[in-house]
Amino acid sequence: MNESQLCFIGAGNMARSLIGGLLADGFPADRIRASDPDAGQREAVAQRFGVQVFADNAEALAGAHVLILAVKPQGLAALARELAPQLDAANPLLISVAAGIRASDLDRWLGGNRPLVRCMPNTPALVQSGATALYATAAVNDAQRNLAESILRAVGLTLWVEDETQMDAVTALSGSGPAYFFLMIEAMQQAGTDLGLPADTARLLALQTAFGAARMALESEDPPGRLRERVTSPGGTTERALAALEDGGFRALVARAMQAAQARSRELAEQLGADA
Ligand SMILES: NC(=O)C1=CN([C@@H]2O[C@H](COP(=O)(O)OP(=O)(O)OC[C@H]3O[C@@H](n4cnc5c(N)ncnc54)[C@H](O)[C@@H]3O)[C@@H](O)[C@H]2O)C=CC1
Ligand SMILES: O=C(O)[C@@H]1CCC=N1
Questions:
Q1: Would you say 21 and 127 are in contact if contact means Cβ atoms under 8 Å apart?
Q2: Are residues 252 and 199 part of one domain?
Q3: 117 within domain boundaries
Q4: CA atoms within 13 A on the CB side of 19
Q5: Tell me, what CATH number does 203's domain have?
Q6: Which of 35, 132, 192, 208 is 20 to 30 A from 82 in CA distance terms?
Q7: Contacts of 262 (CB under 8 A, 6+ apart)
Q8: Nearest residue to 7 (alpha-carbon basis) of 94, 84, 86, 72
């Protein structure tokens, strides 16, 4: 991605996470532009990251080699139709981060046969600890595939899926996943406070424990189940806690949550993809 100019269309949560992660990786701010109709969003991005911002998408994308479409799925069809006539001359690589929207629908809205990569990143990209699955359409050549991968790899782990339908499951797992862990941290912090700890102590212990467990699981050759067993002394405290979680249907609840997210991703594809 050495000389590439990147343009983010939509400067909200996901764009900011990607921009922040790219800058932390050493990507120069003067090669990133962002556009957003919302003045508050533009100001926030310009102030925080020092990138050039635009109210007008056409102005922002001039000269860009890569366009990252980071608007809500509901706004993607209208945006793609607006962009289509402006893409012919430069033929930039397009990267969509939108949940649900199928590459074939987006490609149709963009005028057809565009080099288009659909991906599902997550917000820990901000701290270069993201996880992104990518899917390329037939119009994407090897150089463009490498370019898309290098952009997302700069902010965390990347992997390609060859079967696009898997993107709905990826969205349910890693796209939405940070929110599940944040909820767990919130719940543990609250429970710690309720058990009598000062709020700051409960917060720090919950955060460091989540971080330590994730890091240990990542770095260990043992599966998480084995690591769990090593915390669980027979007749001890963890055993009681885990029994309460299992009795409460924790695993089934997680499965239900992810099935709901996958179903919503499919539903978005059906509802919004029908837009001619
Ligand atoms: N937030 C997350 O954790 C993740 C979000 N995504 C995807 O990223 C996309 C954006 O989500 P968020 O950043 O969370 O939403 P957001 O609402 O924070 O940001 C979207 C931005 O797009 C702007 N926008 C709307 N219409 C526009 C247009 N025509 N041209 C330019 N900008 C326009 C809005 O003003 C807003 O600032 C969605 O499609 C979502 O599915 C994907 C992975 C994770
Ligand atoms: O909640 C959403 O729809 C987006 C996609 C994955 C994470 N946030």
A1: yes
A2: yes
A3: yes
A4: 34
A5: 1.10.3730.10
A6: 132
A7: 168, 169, 171, 172
A8: 94
Longest dimension (CA), the chain: 70
In a domain, 216, yes or no: yes
Which string of DSSP letters, residue by residue, matches 195-209? TT--HHHHHHHHHHH
- Each residue of 212-254: pLDDT tens digit? 999 999 999 999 999 999 999 999 999 999 999 999 999 999 9
Inside any domain, residue 172 = no
Q: Is 208 in the pocket of ligand 1 (CB under 6 A)?
A: no
Q: Which ligand is nearest to the CA of 106?
A: 1
Question: Would you say residue 2 has pLDDT above 80?
Answer: no
Q: What residue type is 274 in one-letter code?
A: A
- 33 and 91 both lie in a single domain: yes
pTM higher than 0.80: yes
- Our CA dihedral for 76, 81, 139, 66, rounded to 10 degrees, sits at -70
Q: Is the CB of 175 under 6 A from ligand 2?
A: yes
User: Residue 260 CA to chain centroid, in angstroms?
Assistant: 18
pLDDT at 242: 98
Ligand 2 pocket test: pick from 16, 74, 132, 176 the residue with the most ligand atoms within 8 Å of its Cβ.
176
Q: What is the pLDDT of residues 248-273, one digit of tens each?
A: 999 999 999 999 999 999 999 999 99
